[in-house]
């Protein structure tokens, strides 16, 4: 049975493209930042290879 919409869910690791793995992989230690132009961005590290990843906008 799926959780009701009002129950809090566990936070998920955002899935962001990794240029080294050439795949969308989960992100370790995600951090949401604000760029100089005021837009949000997500940075973190690939769980497979450890490469730093960057995604404009909030992670999916």
Q: Can you walk me through this structure?
A:
The chain is mainly β and 60 residues long. The chain has a domain of 38 residues. The chain is built from no helices and four strands. The chain has a four-stranded antiparallel β-sheet, with no helix packed on it. Strand 1 and strand 2 form a beta hairpin.
> In one word, what is the shape?
flat
Order of helices and strands: EEEE
User: Distance between termini?
Assistant: 24 Å
Tell me the strand percentage band.
Answer: over 45%
Q: What's the β-strand tally?
A: 4
Overview in brief:
This protein is mostly beta strands. The chain is 0% helix and 47% strand. The chain has a four-stranded antiparallel β-sheet with strand order 1-2-3-4, with no helix packed on it.
List the helices and strands and how they pair.
Elements: E1 15-18, E2 23-34, E3 40-46, E4 52-56
Antiparallel strand pairs: 1-2, 2-3, 3-4
Attribute tags:
4-stranded antiparallel sheet; 60 residues; mainly beta; flat
